[in-house]
TrEMBL record:
SUPFAM superfamilies: RmlC-like cupins. It comes from Luteibacter yeojuensis. Residues 74-96 are annotated as: Disordered. Transmembrane segments: none annotated. Coiled coil: none annotated. InterPro entries: Anti-sigma_ChrR, Anti_sigma_zinc_sf, ChrR-like_cupin_dom, RmlC-like_jellyroll, RmlC_Cupin_sf. This is Transcriptional regulator. Residues 82-96 have a biased composition (Basic and acidic residues). Residues 111-196 form the ChrR-like cupin domain. It comes from the Bacteria. It holds the Pfam family Cupin_7. CDD domains: cupin_ChrR (cd20301).
Length: 218
């Protein structure tokens, strides 16, 4: 399953069940913090998950899923109208989405980018499972054509890019599995900054790109 611009239903169900790797949870949370559409979809996933659990009486939940569920129940009832409302927005262009603060800090100006290629910078975060990184790609550049050994979830934070799947602007996510091969090209004007979660290394298609892959460390 793939979803362009919003979260895939299987991703939302995994998030609802507490079974996503930490890297993916961070990106899902960041998108949910700005997307009312996906917050509504999450309510449906919660209901489906609740029904499934009610039909499996006597089967214990994995500890991580149980802890996640209890935490969510303690935070707010899923049926609360407040859950569907957008959280208070602070119009500060230097402010990262709040769910990313534990991983990258609060402000874009505080980020310490590492150069990994001409016009390409990144910051990796330590997560328990999966890979979580910020990427900043200069305007008007192409990322090498690549497919994925696993899943990739990317959210655009600043700037934009285009690929065969469409135009991706701030707030959009690309929720891709290993069947997708794509070559994002950043829009002119401002650098494209995105946060990306992967669960396995990317597979670059061309021999040159493969040779560069150790440099990218992705
Ligand atoms: Zn969405």
């Amino acid at each position: 399953m793939n979803s362009y611009h919003h979260l895939d239903s299987s991703t939302l169900i995994g998030y609802s069940a507490g079974s996503l790797p930490e890297a993916f949870r961070a990106v899902v949370s960041a998108h949910l913090s700005i997307c009312a559409h996906c917050r509504t979809q999450l309510l449906d996933a919660d209901r489906v998950g609740g029904q499934l659990m009610s039909q499996q009486e006597g089967v214990p939940l994995p500890a991580a899923a149980r802890d996640s569920l209890l935490k969510r129940l303690a935070q707010s009832p899923v049926s609360s109208p407040a859950h569907r409302e957008a959280p208070p927005r602070v119009h500060d262009p230097d402010r990262l989405p709040e769910p990313l603060w534990p991983y990258f800090g609060r402000s874009y100006s505080g980020l310490r980018w590492r150069t990994i290629g001409p016009g390409v910078h990144h910051i990796r975060s330590q997560v328990r499972d999966g890979n979580l990184m910020l990427l900043r790609i200069a305007p008007g550049r192409s990322v090498p054509m690549h497919s994925h050994g696993g899943n990739e979830l990317t959210m655009i934070l600043q700037g934009a890019y285009d690929d065969s799947l469409g135009h991706f602007a701030p707030g959009d996510v690309a929720d891709l599995d290993c069947d997708i091969e794509h070559q994002p090209a950043t829009s002119p004007g401002v650098p494209c900054v995105c946060v990306a979660a992967t669960d396995l290394p990317l597979r670059f298609s061309g021999w040159l790109a493969r040779a560069l892959q150790p440099l990218f460390k992705m």
